[in-house]
Amino acid sequence: MPKRVIDLRSQVPLLDVVSYARGRGPLTPAQRAYVARTVRRVPEVVVKVSGGARTLAGVQRHMKYIEKKGEFGLETDMNTRASGPGFGRDLVRDWDLDVEALNHYSKKSVRGKPPRLVHNIIFSMPAGTSPTKVLEAVRRLALNEWALQHRYAMALHTDTPRPHVHVVVKAMSEQGVRLNIKKATLRSWRAQFAANLRELGLAANATERAVRGETRTHKRTPIYRAAKRNESSRLWKLKRAVLNQAAARNDTLDVGQWLMSRTRLYVVTGWQAVATKLRDGGDEELANEMDQFVTGMPAVRTEQSLISDEFHHQVGPSRTSEAPERWQ
Description:
single chain, alpha+beta, BirA Bifunctional Protein, domain 2, 2 domains, elongated, disordered N terminus, disordered C terminus
């Protein structure tokens, strides 16, 4: 498959609906299509970094895990299938990860944690999406992003309702440049992943949560799992803060709530301006859909305010100074 180059300038930026509103003239066909996908709630792609191994043993364990649950095993950037008891060790050697690890520990001044040898990335779609097309969309993205630069391997998993692809990417490129994954990087990958799925005939979109009116963010995998076990130290700290505030009858400003409310106002103003542009262009139907979309956005709530509501619901308004035992 030839390498496909994508002009990232054509991809939508953060809070894109606001940038659409500021532009002069009517919406372009691409902008209108993006708006239509968003207000009609086309399935959103998910791309997240689930961590990355810093040791050779960690790399081998993760390779073994994704290969074991892989629908078609583990495929590499060299169009080969990796399997067998020693494939993880072979890939570590083939990617020169042992050399990188040795170079780090051979330095005279080694401080802190060693750098990641690989990044673990997950691409997923909602239940009901064709798993093979999800895999093909990730293949195309990998070819465009990392071919001849960063070594990589991937495996399709269908052990959950959401088909997803695990990708292991070597952090250091063949040219000696380290891959640093930033928010803009993830945004670009989401846009490419969605575009690839649409090319394959699947409805897919890549929109910022704030633009869709969502306020609850996805927790990192370790935090999410700890919360499910009721062992999250971060969640307990939030709960203790809520209890202390309730006991002191402290009505101080929730900075997180204020920031989220400001962002919501920014987004809603942008949506309204885009609706005006659509109506000026004679597209009353899509403008009306947009109005309903904005009206249906959930209220802005921080995690702290949700915990506070849960606490008040459990103990009642007259006993807010008494902490339930399980929250102490």
